Structures are given as C-alpha cells and as structure tokens.
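fyi for ur records
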Amino acid sequence: MNRRAQTGGGRVPGTPGAVGPAPAESAAGDQAAAKNRALEQLADNMRLDLTYAELTAKDAPDQLAKLGWGPRRDPGSLEIPGVVRDLSIKSQGEGWLVLD
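which gave:
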C-alpha cells in the first residue's frame, strides 16, 4: 500500500505539494468563525437593548416591574451572615458527613 492510500488520498502535511487543510476542515473553521462573530454581535445587541430599557425606564420603575425587573438597589454593603448555632452532625464517614 502506498502513502497516498494510507492517508485516505489526501496529501501529507509537511511533504512537497502539501496545500494546507482539507476543504472540509477549512469550511468547518470558517463556519465556526462566522458563528462566533454572530454570537458576539448578538451579545453586543442584547447589552445595548438592556441598557436602553434601563435608561428609558429610569424615571418609571413600574415599567421595569412589568418585565419582572425591579429598580436598581441603592449602593451599600451587604449584611454579614450570622453565626450558625443549630447544626449538628447526623452521620459521618471518611470524607463525608450529614448535618442535621
């Protein structure tokens, strides 16, 4: 069996006459790049739409409530969680435990 038959009839990369990726690989790469560009464009458009909606409804928070959104929160720090005092170990094994 000759080298061409072993490789499925394509040219072996790095040998004289090699022309790059097979047409199917090149087409798949082009399609993936086009898909990624389209997803980036979609994400950018969605960000713009959300920003527009927030700025449009800035003075009328009830409009945001119709979409299930609330007005922006006032800036501030969150409360520190309290101490847990009612936990006990129900059962325990090597590397695991069940709390009650």
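Residues 51 and 65 are 16 Å apart (CA to CA). thats all i got for now
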